[in-house]
Amino acid sequence: MPYFIVVPQLPAAAMAIYPFILIKKKAYQDDVVLVNHEKIHHQQQLELLIVPFYLFYVVNYVFNLIKYAYHQKAYYHIIFEKEAYVNEKNLNYLSHRKRFAWLKLLN
Fold first, then answer.
1. Cβ neighbourhood burial of 7 (10 Å; 0-12, 13-18, 19+)
2. Residue 97 pLDDT > 80, yes or no?
3. d(Cα 73, Cα 61) in Å, to the nearest integer?
4. Verdict on whether the full-model pTM lies above 0.90
5. Which CA distances in Å does 68 have to 46, 61, 64, 73, 89?
6. C-alpha atoms less than 13 angstroms from C-alpha of 78 in its C-beta half-sphere
7. What pLDDT shows up at residue 2?
8. Could you read off the pLDDT of 8-35 as tens digits, one per residue?
9. What is residue 22's three-state secondary structure?
């Protein structure tokens, strides 16, 4: 079970910072799709030993920002976000997810 921390100033609805899930509003902890999305990020963070995940995430975002010149498009093309968004509604995804599954989405 994740640990939730309410952060009203959060620029997004939620953010995974292992082992926590930061949420903008307390009610978001009941949003199973949102929580599943963040739990997928927890698994990504663990398999990259946490700190390298954040480094790769930022580098991927900056590369995408240069490529697409638009924040939202750059964000949605971050490899970790692709995996999380594609699978967030599959509440059983984490039970059968293969390690480093996000690598299949590199393009």
1. middle
2. yes
3. 10
4. yes
5. 29, 10, 6, 7, 27
6. 23
7. 80
8. 999 999 999 999 999 999 999 999 999 9
9. strand
